[in-house]
Structures are given as C-alpha cells and as structure tokens.
C-alpha cells in the first residue's frame, strides 16, 4: 500500500550530489579521505567526542566496540531487551551472553536501578541505549561501571545532538560519556547517509587499536602517517570504514544539522501540544523527558493501555493514508534468544513492545499534515 503520509522520508539538503561528484572527481573514493576527515572533525569539534571513526553502520560500530573491549565467549553484557537487534548481536558474535534488563515505567529506556542486581563476576560491559535520543541515567550507570570495573558502550544510534546533565550540573553530549559510543546515519535517523554510522572512542586506551580494527587488522593508518615503513597484518579486524561517496553525502547533512534539528523538534512539539489533552483523557502516555535529558526530535511516540487500543489508532491513520509503526519485539522473547535468556521477567519491555506507537516524523512533514494526524487521533475513541 502507498501512503499519502509515509512514516519516514529521507531528507536531502540539496548538496549531497555536489559533494559526491567532488569526491569522485578527486579520484579518491575509498575510505578515510577528505570527506571522512571533514565529518569526523565536525563531530569532534561540535560535541567534544573522543576519537571519531566513521563506519558503514551503527551495527559495524557496535561490532568494533565488542572487539575493542575484548569480549570472550561466556562474558556477560547487560543491556535493555527493548532495543534494535544489533545492540545485542554485535556482542553475541563474539560469544557474549546477553543479560537483558527491563525498561523504566515512564520511559522505554533501560532502568538503571536494575543493573546492579544483574552484575556477576563475568560481567564485562553495560550497553545503555538512549531510546528516542533521550539519555539514560548516565550518572548511575558510570558509577556502577567504575565500582565494578566494567566498560560502558553507549548505543547512541538515535541520539545525535542530545545531552545529559550530571547531578553536579555538568552537561555533556550523549556519546561523550561511555568508554565507547556508537551512532547511526541510517535513513531513518536524524542525520543520514543511506547506511552509515560512527564509533566514538573516548577512552584513550582503545584509540590505536580501534584504527587497526577499522583497517582490516592492519596498521595501514600509521603507515600513511609515516609512523611505520611497511604496513601489515597486526590484529583482528574487518572492513568497517565507509567510502568517500558515503562520507560526502553525510557532509551535506552535517552542514545543515541545525536546520534539521530545529525542524524536527518543532514537529515533535506540535504533536505534543496537539495530543496531550486527548492522551490524558484516554490514558495514553506521552513521551517523557527526564530533567537530566534533552529532546533531539528523533521520534514521537505514544504508549497505549493495550494492543487493541493501539490497533485502533493505527487503523484510523491507515484509513486516511497515514503510516504509523511500532517496534521492537522484545529481544529476550525472540526466536533466537528466548532459550538463552536467563528467565528474568521483563514486563515493561513487553508492555512497550505491545503498546508503543511511533508517528510519522521527518523533516518534510508539513504543518498541515502534522495537524491532520493530530486531528484524526483526537477523533479516536478509546
Ligand atoms: C538504528 C539503530 C541501530 C542500528 O543502526 P544501523 O546504522 O542501521 O546499523 C542500532 N541500535 C539502535 C538503538 C538503533 O536505533
């Protein structure tokens, strides 16, 4: 079915093809060239990230993180069950056992108060996912990581241009806090390159090795800097870096980051204002932004009381040519992991899985269309 209002529409700023053709004309279109460096420098300078390395996806960046923290078979990694499959898969590929914990009752992000109970002698890392670009309780998570000597890998796939404020008032960009962090530039995210991602290495102990893993296990990067006179196979690795064609596309997006963010947050606020009374009358939860977090306009969602009520809203929108979607099927109950899950009950994960609905959210969503969606939802009797 074709929808008049799709769920997502990739936004082109207008300069993408121009920069791609520039990259092609320079004659260097493999990775780690001019546009890769421009993007990496932009991220570092804008957000204060540690070492930035573009990757072909957030999935790849997560796989690099799992290699860097040296996950061995049997190591345990704590993360929410309510997340995209790659958050877990990257660690499972290295033999990790995933210990899934539940979401918060007022936010689908993981409940930091449940982490300590899940820590054992085998725990190696905590992977907080900043759901909808809204920060997890990073103060608590970092304190636990320090106390138990664990690594923190922020899955910041949805969290570009969002911040966390520590109890002492220090405000830091998401992706600067964990030892490592990963971002996605998939076409469904705020800033896009089709497929694309980035690994942020904040802990200096990982910086040299990250470059090697990125370059197929070779010391090619130090060779090009003239630090070694031959390059060869020095570690494990894979082909994680994107071509200059992808980076050139991303650069066009980054030049327009502020405009994109302002527009998305406007749409988000229009939804919020237009739906809050109807939501209150119908027992629907609106997105919650804790005082320590910011909103980056990544996603607008509603949480219904049950699946039937959600289905009514989906049907109403669909009958007017509007696509709304839900996600994630709880990973602890997935066909692949249900027999491996430790049996922990995760009722809120299942609640979000059954009751959360995402509304269309993209740069070109017009005010008229946003208002049409609001009006139709206000007509839904639950
Ligand atoms: C989108 C997403 C990913 C995967 O990103 P890709 O770039 O498509 O690999 C991982 N984790 C979360 C939370 C995501 O939203």
TrEMBL record:
CDD domains membership: AHBA_syn
The enzyme's E.C. designation: 2.6.1.59
User: Keywords, A to Z?
Assistant: Aminotransferase, Pyridoxal phosphate, Transferase
**Which SUPFAM superfamilies does the entry mention?**
PLP-dependent transferases
User: What enzyme category does the UniProt record give?
Assistant: transferase
- Pfam families xref list: DegT_DnrJ_EryC1
Q: Which GO terms describe its molecular function?
A: dTDP-4-amino-4,6-dideoxygalactose transaminase activity
Sequence similarity: Belongs to the DegT/DnrJ/EryC1 family.
Q: What is this protein called in UniProt?
A: dTDP-4-amino-4,6-dideoxygalactose transaminase
Lineage, please?
Bacteria, Pseudomonadati, Bacteroidota, Flavobacteriia, Flavobacteriales
């Amino acid at each position: 079915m074709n929808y008049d209002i799709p769920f997502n529409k990739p936004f082109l700023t207008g300069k993408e093809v121009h920069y791609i053709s520039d990259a092609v004309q320079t004659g260097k279109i493999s990775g780690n060239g001019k546009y890769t460096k421009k993007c990496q420098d932009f991220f570092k300078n804008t957000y204060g990230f540690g070492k930035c390395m573009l990757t072909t996806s957030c999935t790849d960046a997560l796989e690099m993180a799992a290699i860097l923290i040296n996950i061995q078979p049997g190591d345990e990694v704590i993360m929410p069950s309510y997340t995209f499959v790659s958050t877990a898969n990257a660690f499972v590929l290295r033999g990790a056992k995933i210990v899934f914990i539940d979401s918060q009752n007022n936010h689908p992000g993981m409940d930091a108060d449940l982490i300590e109970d899940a820590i054992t002698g085998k725990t190696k890392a905590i992977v907080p996912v900043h759901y909808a670009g809204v920060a997890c309780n990073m103060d608590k998570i970092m304190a636990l990581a320090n106390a138990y000597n664990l690594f923190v890998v922020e899955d910041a796939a949805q969290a570009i241009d969002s911040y966390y404020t520590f109890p002492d008032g220090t405000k830091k960009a998401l992706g600067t806090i964990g030892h490592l962090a990963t971002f996605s530039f998939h076409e469904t995210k705020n800033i896009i390159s089709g497929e694309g991602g980035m690994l942020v290495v904040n802990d200096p102990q990982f910086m040299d090795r990250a470059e090697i893993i990125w370059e197929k296990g070779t010391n090619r990067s130090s060779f090009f800097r003239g630090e070694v006179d031959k390059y060869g196979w020095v570690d494990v690795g894979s082909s994680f870096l994107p071509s200059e064609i992808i980076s050139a596309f991303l650069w066009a997006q980054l030049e327009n980051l502020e405009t994109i963010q302002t527009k998305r947050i406007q749409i988000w606020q229009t939804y919020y204002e237009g739906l809050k009374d109807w939501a209150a009358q119908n027992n629907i939860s609106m997105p919650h932004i804790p005082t320590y977090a910011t909103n980056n306009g990544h996603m607008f969602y509603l949480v219904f009381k049950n699946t039937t009520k959600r289905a009514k809203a989906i049907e109403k929108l669909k009958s007017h040519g509007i696509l709304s979607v839900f996600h994630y099927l709880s990973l602890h109950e997935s066909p692949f992991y249900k027999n491996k899950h430790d049996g922990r009950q995760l009722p809120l994960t299942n609640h979000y899985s059954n009751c959360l609905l995402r509304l269309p959210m993209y740069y070109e969503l017009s005010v008229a269309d946003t208002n049409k969606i609001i009006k139709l939802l206000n007509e839904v009797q639950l």
